[in-house]
Amino acid sequence: MTDKIANLALMAGGNELVEAAQYYENIPGQTDKAVMLYHKAGMISRALDLAFRTDQFSALDLITNELDENSDPRILERAAEFFKNNQQYNKAVQLLAYSKKYFEAIDLCKQKNVPMNEELAEVLTPSKGEITDESNRKKLLELIAECCVQQQNYHFAAKKYTQAGNKLDAMRSLVKSGDTAKIVFFANAARKKEIYILAANDLQTLNWKEDCDLMKQIELFYNKANAYEHLASFYEACAQVFIYLFAYLCVP
């Protein structure tokens, strides 16, 4: 009988959905139907409230999939807290981001190693209009970058550091990535002494002894940085290689 009432309400729609939901809400063991009917009636807040009170995890999971940054912040925060308490950290972080609790969301990411993918990072990146204090926005971007570094997502860390205006740490992230092409490109684009030196130092860890183009790139970066002590050390290393090769080739 109870199932028939739910089915009839679903077919009828409108006020019948709400009346049926109220009916099921007062029947022990039937609150799942009440949650479903409130949800179908568009009463998201009422459905979530009942689901919270009766610990209906699957219903909460379904309903919160429809939440976004335009949803009621109070609902978002309450849902985030529920999922956090139930060790569903990915969901909690997403909801905290929607509710503009950026710092709390990033902290949870770092504590629980929630994957910082591109979609989440963008949700956690507020526009300049949302955070008027530029220093706070910069700090937020750097925290996202730190989280990416922690998860060895170095390319995305570099992107966030760059958005924060921290080109030095962006280069350090690229160095950790081992992506030579991006390291060279970024150094040329940044045009900063410290970054030229970082790039040249990293290139020296590669097999430059057998790559003339790499040798020229290292020399070029040190020259652009006016880092003549570094350049002298590099020339000394080159000389040692040439001496060794000459001695090896000339041995009868």
TrEMBL record:
UniProt-annotated location(s): Cell projection, Cilium
Keywords: Cell projection, Cilium, Repeat, WD repeat
Gene Ontology, cellular component aspect: axoneme; ciliary basal body; intraciliary transport particle A
Keyword S-adenosyl-L-methionine on entry: no
One of the GO BP terms on file: intraciliary retrograde transport
Keyword match Repeat: yes
Source superkingdom: Eukaryota
Pfam family, one: TPR_IF140-IFT172
Domain IF140/IFT172/WDR19 TPR: 1-219
Residues forming coiled coils: none
Organism: Brugia pahangi
Official protein name in the record: Intraflagellar transport protein
